[in-house]
Amino acid sequence: MTSRMHYVGSDLDAMAEARNYYRWILGHCRPHLGRIVLEHGAGIGTFSTSLLGEAIERLYLLEPAENLARSTHAQLWDSHSVNTVSVRDSLESLNRSRQSAAAAASSSRRLTFADGPR
Predict the structure, then answer these.
(1) At 31, is the pLDDT very low, low, confident or very high (cuts 50, 70, 90)?
(2) Which CATH number is associated with domain 11-106?
(3) So where are the chain's domains?
(4) DSSP character string of the chain
C-alpha cells in the first residue's frame, strides 16, 4: 500500500490570481495540445480551468496530494470532459496487477504434458 500525500502549502491559492502567467504558459502549450490531455500535478485546478477553454475532448487530471485531488474533482465535477486520476489508487491498482501477473507467472511454471507434470 502506498502512503498518502497531503498538501499543506498556500502558494497554489496565491498563484491562482496570476492569470497572465497561466495565459503565457497556455500560449506555449497550445501548439502541443492534442484531443486528450493529461495534466500532471493539477493542484487546485487553476491551469485545468484554462485547458478546458481549449479545443480538447478529454482532460485527465493527475494529482498526488489527495486533498487537492478531491478539491479539484469537486470544482470541475460537472465538466463531462474531465476525469480525475488518483495517484494512490493508480499505484495500488498497478501493484495489484503486478502481483496478479507474478502469481500467474509462478503458476504457469509447472508444465503439464500428456504423460504427466514436469
Answers:
(1) very high
(2) 3.40.50.150
(3) 11-106
(4) -PPPB----SHHHHHTT-HHHHHHHHHHHGGG--SEEEEES-TTSHHHHHHTTSS-SEEEEEESBHHHHHHHHHHHTT-TTEEEEEHHHHHHHHHHHHHHHHHHHHHTTS-EETTEE-
